[in-house]
Structures are given as structure tokens and as C-alpha cells.
Amino acid sequence: MRVRGSTGLALLLALLLLVPLGARAGDDGPMPGTGSPPWDGVTWRPISDPVTSLHFEVPMLGFRVEKRHLARPPLGVVTATYDISGPEGQEVGIDVFDNPQGLGLHDFFDRYLSFMRDGGAFVSDGTVGRSALPAIVMEQPVAPGILPQAATVCALGGRIIRVTCLNEENRRAGEVYVRVLDTLTIEKSTMPRPSAVARPSAPPPEGAR
Q1: What domain count does the chain have?
Q2: Residue 130 lies inside a defined structural domain of this protein
Q3: Helix, strand or coil, per DSSP, at residue 186
Q4: 198 within some domain
Q5: Considering only CA atoms, which of 81, 61, 98 is closest in space to residue 20?
Q6: Which of 49, 78, 88, 196 is 20–30 Å from 158 (CA)?
Q7: DSSP assignments along 28-78, one per residue
Q8: 94-120 pLDDT tens trace
Q9: Among 85, 64, 81, which residue's Cα sits nearest to residue 73?
Q10: Is residue 202 a part of any domain in this protein?
Q11: What pLDDT, on a 0 to 100 scale, did the predictor assign at position 15?
Q12: Which CATH number covers residue 44?
């Protein structure tokens, strides 16, 4: 692929770094370790994104969620990311992929995410969340200098969602990872259905006037 000019180079760098140019970013919660009380290990708070309609839960205190969005990315490139950071940095990540072709979960995975099988990763089928959604589960074995990671890929609301635990040896990170998967949903629109929209009333029957 040839890139011309500074604009093209900047776009290429943005895609490589997965930090989209012109993205709408948002932060939820203070930076951990900046006066925020530690998480009690029990209470959770909901996170909702009106852009993707994605909903999930994170610890009530001591965690921060950073959101990024990219408009009209190439197929197979994330359209939204959520970095969930705790006292020791990012612990869990969520990546959202659009699926305009309507591919099945395994077809999408084989076409765009097959690189996840590299490096000796163990990949298997499973279910995720309270709705027992079909999922592809990956576990990265321990290796020198590499933290053991886990990732789950599922189809939800016409999109493909990948949730990653960046350190399975960190008990807190593992608990957040499981909670995100358990509570991951697509919020339904609160807009009224067409049948519920008020329409002009019909004139009364002839005999009722």
C-alpha cells in the first residue's frame, strides 16, 4: 500500500497504533491512584456508550474506562475500543468490530482475527455471559517476558466483540474480565416503535357526529 503526503502517513500511523484520528474519546472515572479510593471487590457500576449501545459493568471505585471511536474503518479494523484501567494500569480491553457482511462468528474470526491463533495460543469454542452466547475463547500460555492473557470473541447486536484480560495471573483483572463478559449487552433503543408514534385521529363514523 502506497501512502502519499503527510495526511496519508498520519492515517497509516493511526491505524497501526489503533489510536484513530478524529476519534471521539471519553473517559469514565478518575485516574486510578489519584485520590480515588480502592475498589472493595464487591460493588460495580454500569458503563453505557450511546455511540455503540454497548453496556457492561466495571468496579465501582479505582477503575477508569477510556473510550475511542473510529468512523468508517476498513473491514476487520476496530470501530471502538474501551481500555479498563486499574491501579496497575490497563487490565481489561474491549474491541468492537463492525460486521456489515453479516458473517458468522467463526467466519469473521477466520477472516480477520486468525492471527490470534499464533504464538501457541489455545483456542476453543465456549459460551459467554448470562445469555450463554456462543464464543471463541483464547488462552495465551505463560512465556518468558509475556504475561498470560485470555480473550473471548463473540457476536452481539450485529457486531463482533473481543474482550481481553491482559494478565490472567492478576486476580483482580480476572474478576473484572469475567464481570465484563457476564454483563456485556447491547442496550435497546428507547425511541418509540413506529406503531407507537402518535398519528392524527381518524374522523368519527358518519352516524357518530
Answers
A1: 1
A2: yes
A3: strand
A4: no
A5: 81
A6: 196
A7: ESPPTTSSPPPP-SS-EEEEE-TTT-EEEEEESSS-EEEEEE-SSPPTTS-
A8: 999 999 999 999 999 999 999 888 767
A9: 81
A10: no
A11: 35
A12: 3.40.1000.10
